[in-house]
């Protein structure tokens, strides 16, 4: 479908939305299927070094196989990936874990203090609007 010029703009918009979600929200984004990945490389070549996708640069996962995304969406186990999730954490990871928890707690405390600062104790009446 992307071969038709009328669909290339939409494809670029979808790709840019995926990159934005990945970069702004640190979300996982996947591109799957040979045609999808190849057209993404063509349409977004200027956004990537030498027209190549680099891990962590806009997308977290690229797969030329469409079966990868079928397995992910259907909740099936992926060979090798499940083993990675069961591995023991490295020493550096266990050292960082308390720091990450502390940072999250500080952020939650800041969010709570922002809510408290906005609350002046007045009870507002509900309106019909």
From TrEMBL:
Gene3D superfamilies recorded: Phosphoglycerate kinase, N-terminal domain
Gene Ontology terms, MF aspect: phosphoglycerate kinase activity
Comp. bias regions, Acidic residues: 108-129
Region (Disordered) residue spans: 98-129
Entry's Gene Ontology BP terms: glycolytic process
InterPro entries (UniProt xref): Phosphoglycerate_kinase_N
Protein known as: Uncharacterized protein
Organism: Fibrocapsa japonica
Lineage: Eukaryota, Sar, Stramenopiles, Ochrophyta, Raphidophyceae
């Amino acid at each position: 479908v992307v071969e038709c010029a009328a669909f290339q703009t939409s494809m670029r918009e979808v790709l840019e939305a995926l990159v934005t979600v990945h970069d702004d929200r640190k979300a996982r984004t996947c591109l799957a299927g040979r045609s999808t990945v190849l057209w993404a490389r063509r349409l977004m070549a200027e956004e990537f070094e030498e027209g190549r996708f680099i891990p962590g640069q806009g997308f977290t996962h690229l797969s030329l196989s469409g079966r990868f995304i079928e397995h992910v969406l259907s909740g099936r186990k992926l060979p090798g990936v499940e083993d990675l999730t069961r591995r023991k954490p490295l020493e550096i990871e266990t050292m960082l874990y308390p720091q990450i928890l502390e940072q999250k707690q500080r952020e939650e405390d800041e969010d709570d203090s922002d809510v408290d600062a906005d609350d002046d104790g007045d009870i507002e009446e509900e309106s019909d609007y």
